[in-house]
Amino acid sequence: MKTLTVFTPTYNRAFCLPQLYKSLCRQTSQDFEWLLIDDGSKDNTQELINSWIADNKIKISYAKKDNGGMHTGHNLAYQLIETELNVCIDSDDYMPDNAVALILKTREASKSKDIAGIVGLDATKDGAIIGSKLPNVAAGSFMDIYGKHQCTGDKKVVLKTAIVKQYPSYPEYENEKLVPLGILYNTIGLDYDFIYANDVYCIVEYLEGGSSDAILKQYKQSPRGFAYSRKVNNKATKAFTGQVKNAVHIGSSAIFAKDMSILKEEGRTLWNILLLPMGALLNGYIRWKTRK
After folding, report:
1. Which domains are assigned to the chain?
2. Whole-model pTM above 0.85?
3. Among the four residues 7, 61, 131, 151, which has the most C-beta atoms within 10 Å?
4. Is the pLDDT of residue 207 over 80?
């Protein structure tokens, strides 16, 4: 069995998947397999992937499901993955030629039972790091990256599969297509540390219509998913300002969902109610920004 699974949730991305496929074929270490989760694509994604499977250049697995959003693709991937490690590379991104080798090199330092995985870097095509580098410490919690160490920008997370399977799947809400993915890393980070590695594992391209595009519209369309993420973050957030921010977002989400029961939260329900006026202001701002 391979050591690493690179998994890719995809929806109507046949036009950009070849870039990722070619980067995987160029990897200096082939100790990985590629799992594609097709989220109900209506283009020629399946035919394209079948042709790559027939070429047999790298090990590829393919699963197709009804359209449900990025987080549901992650749920299915975590059910199917059997390798020791896994990492998600989005359909519009790709890996540097040495990325798998770098992950496997750092793997030796992550074998401790107290370590959940590795956090590495994203970069642009011209080599610029997305946001800031990671702190010059060996390991720490995921939340500390953005809290204690004040890092910025998306990071690439490699997870131990056995540890991921200990945690609940992302919730899947009817008529909603997004639950922020970082909540899983925050939840795992309550119990385990991560190795910090200032190595680039992913080259990022933010295409129109991708998961990073039009985040405010996604927020508006998936209020229960976003409220859930805020409640998860509250468990790991000690800062007063962070708790205020989470409560305001929970209030805004409750208004979008037209469901005040969303304000219920163990130990924080009254707090959420008191800050509902601020949530209403945020809700109005989002409606204004997405009015077109």
Report:
1. 4-203 (3.90.550.10), 215-289 (no CATH)
2. yes
3. 7
4. no
